[in-house]
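Input sequence (183 aa), recorded before submission:
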Amino acid sequence: MNYFRYLKKGLYFYVAGGMLFGLALLALVVLYRYNNSLNKVLDTANAVSGKQGELSKEIGEIDALVKYLMDNFSLDSPNANSEKIILRAFDDMKTRLDSASLTAARFEDANGEKKLPVEIKILVKNYKMIIDDVGYMESFRFPDYRIRNLSITKEQTGGVALTIQGEFVIPLKEQKPIPLIGT
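Predicted structure, token format:
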């Protein structure tokens, strides 16, 4: 029975100690979760600040590309010559398709567009060459190259010829200067 009195006197201390231990454990769990959350926020902040340099670099590359386009295509002048732009694209096509025969007709003005009809004849060896060459021609955006007719014929010499009839097209609207980014 002495044990019961002993336990009865110490019961309040045990309950108070248990409550303090529970509060301390709760505080540790809260601090642990707070620490993990804080680490995630810091990692995200570091990732964002790390990408800031990459974004600055990409913005610089875009500015350089816009400047290149302005300088080489004279887009910053109010009297940009659409024929000059089309002829540069034609020259680029001629350089890229060096084994091809390119024939251009006269410039035409129709429906608010300046057009240069172009016929291209390429000797091809396989299907991949056809896809690559047609894909290259469709990659033109300014000026646009519109394919009107595409034909594949067998030559008398035994080879295969790809003939593409199309036209370079550029709008005839008065071109306003495009402002550079950041100026």
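Checked by second reader. Helices lie at 2-73, 82-96, 127-138.
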